[in-house]
From TrEMBL:
Gene Ontology process terms (BP): regulation of transcription by RNA polymerase II
Name the record gives this protein: MADS-box transcription factor FBP9
GO cellular component labels: nucleus
Pfam families on file: K-box
Domain of life: Eukaryota
GO molecular function annotation: DNA-binding transcription factor activity, RNA polymerase II-specific; RNA polymerase II cis-regulatory region sequence-specific DNA binding
InterPro entries from the UniProt entry: MADS-box/MEF2_TF (IPR050142), TF_Kbox (IPR002487)
Record organism: Solanum tuberosum (Potato)
Domain K-box intervals: 69-154
Amino acid sequence: MERGARMGIEILESLRDADLEHNFTRSFIPLQNSIQLILTAILSMMTTLEKYQQCSYASLDPMLPVSDTQMNYNEYVRLKARVELLQRSQRNILGEDLGTLNSKELEQLEHQLDASLKKIRSKKLEESAARIPLGLSWGNNGGQTMEYNRLPPQTAQPFFQPLGLNSSSPQLGYNPNMGANHEVNAATTAHNINGFIPGWML
């Protein structure tokens, strides 16, 4: 009985050891694959760093000619700085980012704006002067245009004259028997009241 139990325990222990070895083998294979991938990545990184160092040292060598890539990069840096300067100038002209400017730069900006305003006003005056002769030539096109808002000239003699008090018959028009004072008064009265109706008819 004891012998059978001992044999059973030995069998279970052998099975357990076999299972542990199997599990270890199964878990070790993915770990081994991961380690290989990590080592491959490290080797690739080291190769890349080595190439980068070679390129860096080669670019510092004064005996080697400057490549087109380096020239293009230098041009890019120069143009980028130029664009940033133009953008900052544009913001300054619009009245923005003025806090970084000193008094001399502010004075230069003020002179620049004054010169721009003078040019704008001069151009505006030129445009206005160019339009004036066109308007005159259009208005005097062969004398065919009509003149509006002009009153006809007034005659020296009034159209109606007041009647004399001693006259026996009605008279229309000019009365030669009346004095010069009556003519002046009649003309003044005729002109003062609406320009048409003399005072004696009201």
